[in-house]
Design a protein that fits this description.
Blueprint: H1 11-29, H2 33-62, H3 67-75, H4 77-110, H5 116-123, H6 125-128, H7 131-142, H8 149-154, H9 163-174, H10 176-189, H11 192-199, H12 204-233, H13 236-242, H14 252-261, H15 265-298
């Protein structure tokens, strides 16, 4: 008894079968054209209304009375004081956040210890606490009637309504950003390279500078850029602890608020254009760093 053998399908027949299957899969998973167009239209309208039009409005109002008025608003002594205080805050807060982010990410991803999940949750606290509430917390700690207020007054140390309070408020609001960028990146990379370096005799500093830092550099820069933008634009916590003293404790957002409340709209929008420029630059750098990080992960 012989078994009749079926002829194998040709390459053309196999290709047609595969194309029919793929077309059937596409028909099941793809949406109708009107659905795609509707979704794209909704996204475009939202982007135009919520992002593009406000940006156009800021620059149009800033230059509404001419370029001379725009420059005069930026050259005002109070505006310069606000810009310098904001830059000083960034210069202090961002490096501290970078150091904390590296230490926290290294601790969480390289070691096993009790309370690791609690530490991760505590890092996320500024995301869930209102900036205004954070400012009030520092007032309760370091204000005149706070826990440490009498001791600070006796020793002539001013924190609330002074630049140290602004630093503390901004630091609290921004410290998760670098850590939150580095933790998932370092978890994805694992510890194989570090273990290999240790077996070859590398010490802790060589391990950090030669292996860990090059692997995390794009994520670190990405977090620093976001932290910088957030520090420049912080309003809530800084508004509570600053006291709104012209030329002394006003940052750029607080100076913009004062100008707007005084109906100096052109000057307010002129100063606001600085933050818009920083935001646009942040988006460009953020996209570039994110692309570099993805390329590094695929190597």
């Amino acid at each position: 008894m012989t078994i009749s053998q079926q002829p194998l399908p040709s390459a053309q027949a196999a290709s047609s079968i595969a194309s029919r299957r793929s077309s059937s899969y596409r028909s099941v998973t793809s949406e109708p054209a009107w659905v795609r167009r509707t979704l794209i239209g909704i996204v475009l309208v939202f982007v135009i209304v919520m992002l593009i039009l406000p940006l156009i409005t800021i620059f149009s109002q800033a230059f509404k009375r001419g370029f001379d008025v725009y420059l005069a608003a930026l050259e005002d002594p109070d505006a310069w004081a606000a810009i310098k205080l904001s830059l000083l805050t960034v210069a202090v807060v961002v490096p501290l956040n970078a150091l904390f982010g590296i230490a926290a990410a290294w601790c969480i991803t390289k070691f096993s210890f009790r309370g690791k999940q609690l530490l991760v949750s505590l890092i996320d606290v500024p995301f869930s606490v209102s900036p205004v509430i954070a400012g009030f917390m520092f007032v309760l700690l370091f204000g005149a009637q706070g826990w440490f207020g009498p001791w600070l007054q006796e020793n002539g140390i001013a924190i609330i309504f002074s630049w140290p309070g602004i630093m503390l408020g901004t630091l609290f609001i921004t410290f998760p950003f670098v850590a939150r960028e580095l933790i998932p990146l370092m978890q994805t990379q694992g510890i194989q390279e570090e273990e290999a370096a240790i077996t070859l005799g590398a010490n802790g500093w060589k391990l950090f500078w030669r292996i860990a830092l090059p692997n995390m550099k794009w994520g670190l820069l990405y977090g620093i850029i976001i932290c910088n933008a957030r520090a420049l634009g912080e309003f809530g916590a800084v508004s509570v602890v600053s006291g709104h003293i012209r030329g002394e404790t006003n940052t750029i957002p607080l100076h913009i608020e004062i100008l707007y409340n005084e109906y100096q709209f052109s000057a307010a929008f002129a100063v606001a254009s600085i933050l818009v420029f920083v935001a646009c630059l942040t988006l460009v750098l953020q996209h570039w760093f994110d692309r570099k990080r993805r390329e590094q992960q695929h190597l």
